[in-house]
Amino acid sequence: MIHKSAIVGENVRIGSNVKIGAFTTVHDNVVIGDGTEIDGYCEIGYPSALATSDRLVIGSNSRVRSHSVIYSGSVFGNGLVTGHRVTVRENVTAGENLQIGTLSDFQGDCRIGDFVRTHSNVHLGKKSVLGNFVWVFPYVVLTNDPHPPSDTLLGVTVHDFAVIATMSVILPGVSVGEHSLVGAHSLVKDNVDAHSVVAGVPARRICKANEIKLTDGSGRPAYPWPGHFHRGYPDSLVEAWQRKYQESGN
Fold this sequence. Notes:
Elements: E1 7-8, E2 13-14, E3 19-20, E4 25-26, E5 30-32, E6 37-38, E7 43-46, E8 56-58, E9 63-64, E10 69-71, E11 75-76, E12 81-82, E13 87-88, E14 93-94, E15 99-100, E16 105-106, E17 111-112, E18 117-118, E19 123-124, E20 129-130, E21 135-136, E22 141-142, E23 157-158, E24 163-164, E25 169-170, E26 175-176, E27 181-182, E28 187-188, E29 196-199, E30 204-208, H1 235-248
Parallel strand pairs: 1-4, 2-5, 3-6, 4-7, 5-8, 6-9, 7-10, 8-11, 10-13, 11-14, 12-15, 13-16, 14-17, 15-18, 16-19, 17-20, 18-21, 19-22, 20-23, 21-24, 22-25, 23-26, 24-27, 25-28, 27-29
Antiparallel strand pairs: 29-30
């Protein structure tokens, strides 16, 4: 269902059971997968001279909330979910089940894996790379310019299952290892080892991630987090995680 006030360009491919809200503009060369819902006042496929392609693909069963702007030249897998007033620039490639929080700003040329969760007011600088199952909490900034302002861009890389807590800043070119935790309000200027915790300004290594225990009285390790947190993930993934972490004793 397309609202009568929406504007839909030519060469737009719209799947079945798609809803497009009031006063939303869908530009040319956009592909919208089946079962997707786009709220009102959005701009989808916004043209950009920086885009390597004028095509935008939004996978099936996605939800784009009101006042969001998604530029041309990007590809999103199935199950994209955005908050309100999200901006995603050109040349972003994202896997399935990406969640982008309200007022977040993803700059161009980012690569994002499957099941990535970013909360509100997150900024991803150009050339950021996020692996699978990454969590990025509110007001986190991934930077990219080592001596601003310049034309040199060094994107941050965040590996699988890493967690970056609220209000942290990751400096250009830093690699955040898999299953690691960056504590809240941290300034990270050095690479973070896998399975470790860093915190502070500047961030320093605190301990191994599995030394942190849950505060639920169970005494279980809080990390790796798939050992105990499963909300919103498919049953097949949860079952695999449970087998893995029961066998490992975590």
